[in-house]
Hints:
Layout: E1 3-9, H1 12-24, H2 26-29, H3 33-54, E2 61-69, E3 72-79, H4 108-115, E4 117-124, E5 127-135
Amino acid sequence: MPEILLVIASDPFAVRAALGQILDDPCMADLRSDLRARAEIVLAEVLNNVVEHAYADGPGEIILHLRCVQGGVICRIRDFGRAMPGLALPGGAAIGPDPVELPEGGFGWHLIRCLTEDLQYCRRDSRNELSFRLPETARAH
């Protein structure tokens, strides 16, 4: 199966460049447009979270491994930054009915949870590892 393996600097500009490279890769270019769009949203959220939180104290590397499989894309993201609080995934706030009253931020994990399947996090040997599957067909919410 086609795969993508990238090492990305923990920098917002490097993340933006990597997202462009990922979406242009033949592995992703042949996917349905809605799956590509969901992949871009989820990967942008996850990678930017690593930059902002795991590497808040300084630079580091993000290792991204994508595998295009029948039925979607399997993703694994590893870093050596700070662990998730409580060594667990955040719950993710649901989006309320009045957008004017929304706080800035905090909805990324809700999006990630809605757009992925088999979402898992572990901390092993000073390394964070997040894995998930982007299904070919979006789930109804």
